[in-house]
């Protein structure tokens, strides 16, 4: 990896250079843990030379809740709800990821109805996540109006999903073996009505923010990261695709019914904050395209292929499954010590935001504080997904 070693806070302070007549004095400033641009409880220790960032040291753990250890003391059904407390903006996709891991290990076969509904809800969740990201990115860079627009549109999706799921944020709907219950009788009509209006809404987003000359100045050629560096850091999702790497699990390792729909994977060319922004705008259009192909063709069948009260046990061994969330690859790793135990011996989640966070270092070091804010917004961090 072509980067300087990451120093501890003590080492960073000890190695601070003393100024001479030709240098300005380097100093340290804390960005967080309650800074509004950190999207959660994250602390960045910055070593600055004027307004130029010389070093970034992320300090994690302020919202750590021991989710993986808690999951090891619950059954395979009970542990699912913990995942929507990690990346709460991709709650349903997180539920899907851990449910897939359990189903793969237990040999549970799903019917086409379950797979189709899961895919539709996964793309609705991606839309909700990208809507909020778009509004927050505008607000981070000084444009408050997009934040109001994104919540106006996001509430429409919340209403639709609440009818079926009963929640508006930490949604818990997908379970090993199927779905908690079938979709609401209004679901198909509500989704079609929303999509009809949202197509023009995405164009409105472009008109309001994408083409704004001030916004363009803040993101174009800012935070450039090439594909090799992104891969070195283990970046995934729009951060990786923004650097020119066309890797999307929905295409390369299809799950659900992604292999039955036609959609494109947007890929950046420069690897800057604009590319990461543009990719998410295009992904919203692709999500609409995917849902439109499925919403009138939901197969008949049961919404659960195992009994709700049935205990799920998996053979002894190690199992891994992964899904493409709104922020990248979420991997679920399960270790079963005994087929008799209704629960995992070891659980580990490979969260996308943890790896994506560290890409701030090659993006920003040597640039200005204002660029740091733009880059953080373009990465779309959710801090509970980092700490777990």
Which segments are poorly predicted (pLDDT under 50) over 5 or more consecutive residues? none
CATH topology of the largest domain: Cytochrome-c3 Hydrogenase, chain B
The number of domains: 2
Task: Specify the helix fraction band.
Answer: 40-55%
Structure in a nutshell:
This protein has 388 residues and is an alpha+beta fold. The protein contains 16 helices and eight strands. The protein has a three-stranded antiparallel beta sheet. The chain has a three-stranded antiparallel beta sheet with strand order 6-7-8. The protein has a two-stranded antiparallel ribbon with strand order 4-5.
SSE arrangement:
Blueprint: H1 9-14, E1 26-31, E2 43-49, E3 52-59, H2 67-71, H3 80-83, H4 91-106, H5 112-140, H6 145-165, E4 174-175, E5 178-179, H7 187-210, H8 213-219, H9 227-232, H10 238-242, H11 249-252, H12 273-294, E6 317-324, E7 329-336, E8 346-350, H13 352-358, H14 360-364, H15 369-379, H16 383-387
Antiparallel strand pairs: 1-2, 2-3, 4-5, 6-7, 7-8
List keywords for this structure.
46% helix, Cytochrome-c3 Hydrogenase, chain B, 3-stranded antiparallel beta sheet, alpha+beta, 12% strand, 388 residues
């Amino acid at each position: 990896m072509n980067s300087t070693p990451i120093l501890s806070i003590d080492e960073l302070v000890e190695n601070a250079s003393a100024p001479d007549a030709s240098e300005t004095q380097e100093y340290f400033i804390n960005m967080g843990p309650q800074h509004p641009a950190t999207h959660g409880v994250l602390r960045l220790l910055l070593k600055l030379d004027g307004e130029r960032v010389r070093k970034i040291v992320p300090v994690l753990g302020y919202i750590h809740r021991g989710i993986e250890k808690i999951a090891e003391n619950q059954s395979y059904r009970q542990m699912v709800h913990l995942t929507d407390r990690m990346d709460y903006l991709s709650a349903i996709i997180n539920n899907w990821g851990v449910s897939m891991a359990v189903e793969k290990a237990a040999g549970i076969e799903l019917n086409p109805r379950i797979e189709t509904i899961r895919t539709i809800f996964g793309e609705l969740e991606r839309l909700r996540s990208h809507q909020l990201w778009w509004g927050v990115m505008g607000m981070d860079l000084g444009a408050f109006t997009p934040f109001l627009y994104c919540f106006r549109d996001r509430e429409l999706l919340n209403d639709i999903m609440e009818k079926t799921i009963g929640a508006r944020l930490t949604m818990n709907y997908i379970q090993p073996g199927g779905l908690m219950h079938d979709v609401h009788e209004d679901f198909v009509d509500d989704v079609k009505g929303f999509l009809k209006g949202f197509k023009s809404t995405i164009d409105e987003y472009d008109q309001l923010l994408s083409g704004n000359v001030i916004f363009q100045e803040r993101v174009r050629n800012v935070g450039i990261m090439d594909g090799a560096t992104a891969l070195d850091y283990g970046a995934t999702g729009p951060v990786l695709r923004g650097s020119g790497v066309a890797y999307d699990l929905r295409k390369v390792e299809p799950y659900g019914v992604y292999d039955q729909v036609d959609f494109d994977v947007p890929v950046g060319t420069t690897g800057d904050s604009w590319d990461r922004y543009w990719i998410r705008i295009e992904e919203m259009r692709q999500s609409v395209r995917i849902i439109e192909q499925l919403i009138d063709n939901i197969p008949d069948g049961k919404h659960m292929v195992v009994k709700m009260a049935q205990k799920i046990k998996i053979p002894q061994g190690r199992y891994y499954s992964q899904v493409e969330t709104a922020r990248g690859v979420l991997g679920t790793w399960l270790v079963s010590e005994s087929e008799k135990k209704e629960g995992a011996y070891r659980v580990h989640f490979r969260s996308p935001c943890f790896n994506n966070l560290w890409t701030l270092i090659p993006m920003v070091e040597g640039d200005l504080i204002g660029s740091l804010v733009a880059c953080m917004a373009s990465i779309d961090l959710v801090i509970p997904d980092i700490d777990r």
